[in-house]
Amino acid sequence: MSQESSRYSPPWQSTTRVIVAILLLILLGLLAIRFRSVVMLLILAGILTFLMVPVVRWLHSRARLSWAVATNICFLFLLLLIIIALTASGLVLVQQLQSVYQSVESFFTELPDRIDEVSQQVVEVGPWVIDISQFDLTSSIEQALTYVEPFLGQASDLLTGIAAVVIETFARIFFVLALAYFLTLDNARIRKAWWSINVPGYEYDLDRMRSALSNIWNSFLRGQLIVIVIVAILSWILFSALGVRFSLALGILAGVSKLIPVVGPTLAGTIAALVALFQPSNWFGVTPIAYAIIVGICVLILDQSIDYLVVPRVMGTSLNLHPVLIIVGVIIGAMVAGILGILLSAPATATIILIGRYTYRKLVNLSPWDPPIDEPSEERERSLFRIFRRKT
């Protein structure tokens, strides 16, 4: 052995590498659980980066601007939109709180006069005559207010808590925007580092797995935005045609509900049916129950049509999961990461299934690519997506 080579430590044996890899995975899992809130913000920043990169790339190529200038313009525009949205919603919230405060204040100001007015009345109910003046309403009201005062004190604590939550929300938004900005700014370097990760002997497998994972998340994140817009517009048109009140709000709700698989569209359809049920009148002249049923059936037909005709065209078959798997993924996602876990349950489930198939094939000494684990099965190919596929 030469003096030059003796400086270096001996290579690790395969058993040592496996043990170190398992320990690192366990450590990463513990850190993710311990700092789960930070991990959620990192995921949101990654999603925002994923959505902003195509916009920056388009501006970079069309306007012939540098990547940094295009990134600055896009994020300044996004920041302006967020400020306008928060300002508008804040003004509405302040107006609502002011109206509630004025209503409560006027109620307690007029309460003594109302008590005196009521105490002078005589109520006749059939053969019975009730003289309210014989009751001491003033003392009863004062005694009732003694029970209300603790709740008013808790209301002030609640307002203080809401203010703290608002401040924390602004801090989280700023953190996500800042992180997404730097991720977008260094997108080329990050992509190069991601595609340069290799393990000796597994170069082909890693390249194909990266392509499959990119296909899954591309199909979901970018395709989901298109689906949301389509569903919102079609639902708005449907509710307007049926004469349902708040058609625009219900259309937006129907579009956003597509983020939550299975459960979201069902909940949005139920809300639309309830709005129709309690609507004073309808264009069809039928009973409220019949009108609600008509609205529910139309929403169901529209949702199923979108699932079979639009979603396969936009998102492909990479997320073609069984409904049972989707529901289980939603439940587990809600337990692990709350709302964000619900929203990302579908691509996360598809990712876990892909990695699980690869691991199983390798454990039983089978090739993961014969038949390939990253392509739809024969049953999945027998779908309406095949009808609309372009002929080559």
Distance between the termini: 61 Å
The helix/strand class is mainly alpha
Number of helices: 13
Q: What's the Cα radius of gyration? A: 30 Å
Uncertain runs: 377-392
Global mean pLDDT: 77
Order of helices and strands: HHHEEHHHHHHHHHH
Main sheet summary: 2 strands, antiparallel
Number-wise, the strands total: 2
Bin the strand percentage: under 5%
How would you name the oligomeric state of the polypeptide chains in this document? single chain
Tell me the helix content. over 70%
Q: Looking across the biggest beta sheet, what order are the strands in?
A: 1-2
Q: Give the CA-based shape.
A: elongated
Written overview of the protein:
The protein is mostly helical and 392 residues long. It has 13 helices and 2 strands. The protein has helices spanning 14-34, 36-62, 67-119, 137-185, 187-195, 203-242, 247-257, 263-277, 288-315, 323-343, 345-363, 378-381, 384-388; strands at 122-125, 128-131. The chain has a two-stranded antiparallel sheet. Strand 1 and strand 2 form a beta hairpin. The model is unreliable at 377-392 (pLDDT under 50).
